[in-house]
Design goal:
alpha+beta; globular; six-stranded antiparallel beta sheet; Jelly Rolls; Arc Repressor Mutant, subunit A; single chain; 11 helices
Length: 279
Amino acid sequence: MTLGPEHISFNYSDVFFCYHSVKSRVFDKFMNFHYLIYIYSGEMLITQNKKTTVVRKGECVFLHRDQRILVVKQPSSNGEEYRGVFLVFRRNFLKSKMGILADYASDFFENSKLDVQPIIQVPLKPNLKSLFLSLQPYFEFNVKPTPELMELKLYEGLLALLQTDKVFYKYLFNFHQSYKIDIEEFMNENYMCDMSLNQFAHSTGRSLTSFKRDFRKISTLSPEKWLINKRLEEAYNLIINHHKKASDIYLQVGFKSLAHFSRVFKEKYGINSSQLPIK
């Protein structure tokens, strides 16, 4: 297969294919859904809570939802480009399959405490290996699968996980958070993530209404204004102390556009970011 661009990513109904030819690519991401990832070539470094997991060619990993991770996709040590496939298990998809699998799953919820492992390296048994081999031809751009076929592949991946280890029943079909995460700690750790307020609320185990109510206990600012201030403060630090340019860091600190970043930066500090003195 011959590919021209250095980076290519495309999605067929929640089956994502990614290709990077030369450079490493770094992503700081909050996981709203469960992911099953397979590496065809190159390697992926996944860091969560200061622990790094390396996933190499021919290896598979499961990422639990509701966590923040740092991902590096890069060529292998021998220069082989990165290619990987991601299966995304969204709640609606899992709920649609729960009834079919209820007879198999029910035993694992009774009197059972969920001890979540955020990253699980999954052994590549024949069922998973055949699934990923069957997906490989779709890296060719002239081969476009139907949504119906991709949903079957997602279901195949779901069944393969459940057959690999029964613990995945509890992970995949647990749709509720029975606890509330400390808002202040969570926001300070994740304020640079590209998340809506609804997503912040859900990730702390709250409805949007209770999230806003509890947020008033830690700040006189609204959550929206608090996020903007925190992101601007981090941007200010990166520009002043690390000699970064606004165009290089506005996405990193959580802004969607450079124009929006520039406008709110000037509103807060009274000058353009390019006018800041560099230490």
